[in-house]
Design goal:
There is one protein chain. This protein is mostly helical. The chain is about 50% helix and about 0% strand. It contains three helices and no strands. The longest helix has 22 residues.
Length: about 90
């Protein structure tokens, strides 16, 4: 009798072997996956404050009256810091 056959001529399906790729990727530890709660708080604070400074600059609410490029740069720096913080959020 052939391997995998029974009386009556029926064949049983063979189990397929799982092939390994040869690469091992260790699991990421849980401690590295979770960001502290202050990360999104800092992110939104920087983004919001940067937008408020830029808008207040162009409306004329900042000290000095007229629009000043330094306030624009401070606002853009805060927005950039918010985006950089957003990349660290897990």
């Amino acid at each position: 009798m052939a391997k995998g056959t029974k009386r009556g001529g029926r064949t049983t399906p063979k189990k397929q072997a799982v092939t390994a790729t040869g690469r091992y990727t260790p699991p990421t530890p849980r401690s590295k996956k979770v960001s502290p709660k202050w990360v999104p708080v800092i992110m939104f604070a920087c983004l919001g404050l940067g937008v408020v400074i830029i808008l207040a600059n162009y409306v004329g609410l900042m000290p000095g009256g007229d629009a000043n490029n330094w306030y624009l740069l401070i606002g853009l720096a805060l927005i950039t810091a918010g985006f950089l913080t957003a990349t660290q959020y897990r």
